[in-house]
Amino acid sequence: MSKHTPTVEAMVKLNNQLREELMGENKTYYEDLLTYIRTAGLFYDDHEVESLLMQILQDILSAQHDGQSAEAFFGKSPQKAADALIHNLGKASWKEIMKLTGIIFGISSFFELLNALTLPGKGINFLVLMLNGLLSFIVVGIVFHVLHRSIYAKIVKSKVLSFLVLWLACMLIIGLFVLIHVLTPPLLTLYLASPVGILMITILLVGLTIAALRRNKEDRKIWWSFLPPVYIMGLIGILSRLPLTEDWLASRNGRITAVVCIGFGLILNWVITYVNIRAEKE
């Protein structure tokens, strides 16, 4: 890629800006098409995908300027046209595939590590880390597939039934993660001394903070919403390893306080997420 070739992030940002110029049905038409193409698979070349979407957007904007609708320009069967375009997209390089795989496993491992470090006697089960990462990768693939298939074909037409199916799917996924924790033997478990545990928690929290600060303005809003519960869990993990507070946190009152604090962190997560969503709509 040459120095003058726009990055994927730059094209996504420009796409978000130009998309606001679309009117009514044209915007709905294009955004359905955008979601359909982006969720076609995990292993297509991101640069080719975003270049294609940008070209389509610019063509539809030109047609709109000439008084032509997106449907009249692109056709009444956008799914067939999109399938033909997707078929010609190049596959991602092994480097990009490994990067995506690493991101999914990294996110899964981060929360599992933090959860393990919050409880001093639990230890880090590396077999659980690997199984959680594998399950996370499968879940992401299924979510992409379902989103892709549901754009132009309603899988479940009833809103109530759709909500019920979504709820059951979420419960199933949570149940699978719980089963991994319950059934996985402690074959590859590492138990850390208190000073090492405190050091690891500190490294994780500092690393997360730096990563959040390095995000662009839009992505940073998403990261900020996750920071309160993560910081609280990290603080509990540190306090549970300090001589002055470990006995109190191990007591009934200490455990209740820890649960309440984590619950408060989750509420902050929901509030910040809600505020960000409202701000985007306005």
Largest sheet: 2 strands, antiparallel
Q: What topology, given as strand order, has the largest sheet?
A: 1-2
Rg over alpha carbons? 23 Å
Number of helices: 12
Which class of secondary structure composition applies to the elements? mainly alpha
Order of helices and strands: HHHHHHEHHEHHHH
What oligomeric state best describes the polypeptide chains here?
A: single chain
Beta-sheet strand percentage? under 5%
Which percent bin holds the helix content? over 70%
Morphology: elongated
Count of distinct structural domains = 3
Organism: Sporolactobacillus terrae
Protein name: DUF1129 domain-containing protein
Keywords: Membrane, Transmembrane, Transmembrane helix
Transmembrane segments: 100-118, 124-148, 160-182, 188-210, 222-244, 256-277
Write up this protein.
By secondary structure, the chain is mainly α. It has 3 domains: 8-87; 93-191, no CATH class; 194-282. It is built from 12 helices and 2 strands; from the N terminus they run H-H-H-H-H-H-E-H-H-E-H-H-H-H. The protein has helices at residues 8-19, 24-38, 46-65, 70-74, 78-87, 94-118, 126-150, 159-183, 194-214, 217-239, 246-250, 252-281; strands spanning 124-125, 189-190. The radius of gyration is 23 Å and the shape is elongated.
